[in-house]
Amino acid sequence: MWQRQFAAAAEEHSVVALDFPGHGRSSGVEGLPTIDAYAESLVHFADAVRLRPFVLVGRSMGGAVAMTVAARHPERLAGLVLVCTGARFPLEPAHLTTLRDVVRGRLPQQFTTETFSPSTPVALMREAWMQQVKTDPRVRYADLLACQAFDGDALLPRIRTPTLVVAGADDQATPPALSEELARGIAGARLEIVSEAGHQAPLEQADRFNRLVASFAETLR
Length: 221
What we know:
- The chain is of the alpha/beta class.
- Helix content is 43%, strand content 11%.
- It has a single domain, classed as Alpha/Beta hydrolase fold, catalytic domain (Rossmann fold, 3-Layer(aba) Sandwich).
- Helix 1 (3-9) packs across helix 9, helix 2 packs across helix 3 and helix 4 packs antiparallel against helix 6 (137-149).
């Protein structure tokens, strides 16, 4: 997901990424995950690699995790970037039902274009899809349940970390209106809406996204 950001940022910054429990190379956890549990795993990870106050970038569910860390552990962060996310996730019941049927073996995993801008090249869509299917559908389903249960409205007034909010203009999963709510709810937050980008803005408009984050990081020096 973040490969294009690593290459752009690594020239001037140390860049670290983690796989949440059950994702990528990280082992899973017992029971259903929660946003709170993912937030604590991120803090433990930061301890393990001895991160000083850092800029935390989170997209979609990762944005919910990032908000939680910022509200509960403000001393950990120098900056916060919330990407294609919201204080709530308006999940379609049909989406949950479809993924549940995949988990139960009733349906195969299917390529979808719904989370992308209509202008996004199919090659980029397939690249994102190939990354997504590496995650066990059971984990993805549990993540959707965690997002469904998340209510970040009470967190927003507690966030004092300098914050950049980035939305994809064509994002249907977390529409720009949700990003606008975040920017209003977090004191001093800056909002940027990226044209011709859906829910995968860092991939769909990588150069534009990278410039926004780099510009924001400069303000923190």
